[in-house]
Amino acid sequence: MVANFEAIITENGKGIFHLFPALCKGCGLCIEKCPVDTIGWSRQLGFLGTPVVEPGHGKPCIACKKCELICPDCAILIERRK
Amino acid sequence: MSVQARPAIPRSWRPETKPHKFCPGCGHGLILKALGMAVDELDLQDRLIFACDIGCSLLAWDFFNIDSIHTHHGRTLPVLTGLKRVRPELIVVAYMGDGGAYAIGAQHLVNAAARNEFLTVIVANNSLYAMTGGQMAPTTLPGQKTETTPYGREVKAAGAPVLGPELVDSIAPTGAYIARGTVASMIQLKNFIKKALVHQIEGKGFSFVESLSTCPTNWRTNAAETWHFLEKEMSGYFKVGEIRQ
Ligand SMILES: Cc1ncc(C[n+]2csc(CCOP(=O)(O)OP(=O)(O)O)c2C)c(N)n1
Ligand code: SF4
Ligand code: SF4
Ligand code: SF4
Question: Which of A73, A77, A78 to mutate to test the pocket of ligand 2 (most atoms within 8 A of CB)?
């Protein structure tokens, strides 16, 4: 079975940033690991009623997918912009 | 913009049970992500048995789309030993915490390693007893504050931290695979787990991977402090790498 979750999609730099609020627990681990510091807190709330994250707070995203890999809840999906 | 999409979760995860039961920023989710990726790459989902212990690892009882067992501290090993001996075609994985593996259930780890049982053991080392509220564990670092060491662990009174993979290395006969990874290096951790599983598939013997892990809840750390404690304090004491190939 493939579960579908709603994603908030934001284009930034080289990446298309998909954030799944139903999965994001607002731990902030991704914010610390982004090499260009583009990830920051969003106004949207996630699974636990805490803020989710969004790109656009630093330099443009380089689509390295580090945030996708280290999210313990798989709440981020990065696609490379064509 | 908001659209229906598929998160990048491993195929072997069970999506209906997500978000999983671990706290925000918990390393258990990352270790099980690395295990899920390894299982997917080896296409093992249908012949794997996943067994979790007591401690926060038990919150993984419905984590995978894989037949799963839950036992008491350390008993994952004798239970899987029996299973593997009766059904050698199955690939069995024990998932335990450092308290379960190195203290409360240590006799089972020691004897399974000594007998070179064909099991894969994955231990989450988060430096304390997490599920019960953050007491000192065998792996608590010198000077680390926990619920039961409010002034920091004193080596003179409480001994030095147990080095799990090194302990297994001193017991297991030739043929074992032993490594220590960290959730700070996910691809390396996935590769260690994959090698451990292949070791069992090829019938070479006991395979053991400890992973350094995070527990922001009991460490009482924010995200920056969590990474710092894992990557500087823990990795400084517990050496990451393969001990036996
Ligand atoms: C024989 C026994 N002693 C104590 C306990 C209480 N207990 C339950 S979970 C736990 C801590 C487990 O810590 P660890 O194995 O490090 O896993 P974590 O929760 O940190 O992931 C303890 C002490 C128990 N269940 N059984
Ligand atoms: S996207 Fe993942 S890593 Fe980032 S805050 Fe949310 S749960 Fe934590
Ligand atoms: S893909 Fe890389 S650059 Fe882009 S947001 Fe994630 S971590 Fe930052
Ligand atoms: S208490 Fe610690 S180990 Fe247990 S789920 Fe929470 S963060 Fe993870």
Answer: A73
